[in-house]
Structure formats: C-alpha cells, structure tokens
Amino acid sequence: MKVKVCMGSNCTLLGAMNLLDQIEDLKKLTSRDDEYNDRELDIEVVKCLGYCKESKGNISPVVVIDDEVVYNATGQIVMEKILKQKSK
Known about the structure:
By secondary structure, this protein is an alpha+beta fold. Helix content is 42%, strand content 18%. It has helices spanning 9-13, 16-31, 51-54, 75-86; strands at residues 2-6, 42-46, 63-65, 68-70.
C-alpha cells in the first residue's frame, strides 16, 4: 500500500508533519501484528501534490492512500482508511 503525504506549504502549516509522524508510528505498530502485516505500508513524502492549486477552497492537508485522495486529512480519518485497506 502506497501512502503519499503532501508537504507543500499549506499542508505543512495545517498539520502534515503530525500526520506523517502518526502514519510512521502506525507502520511500526502494524508491522508487529500478523493481522495487518500482509500488506507493506510504503510512505512517500511529496513536496507538493498540487491539489490545493486546483481547488478554490481549503483542502489541506492532503494524503493519498493508494489512489484515494483524502482532503482535509486528520489523523483519525487517515488511520482508519489505512487499517481498513491493510485488513483486506
């Protein structure tokens, strides 16, 4: 599973670093759990995904999980989506 975290200026100001820390912690926790260990979690930090430039509203921070774009990403939303994908 590929998780991209946008680190553009808007996303960084609105909590992307915190999200990245949470995702990295989740990766460590799930790597020890047989239930979730079957799908490797690949985390990629991206300078800017460019979604905020296309949108007129505030959508930051942005996280992409596989091909699903998560706007206004929060730790809870991102963790739930990752765990749901990993348990499939």
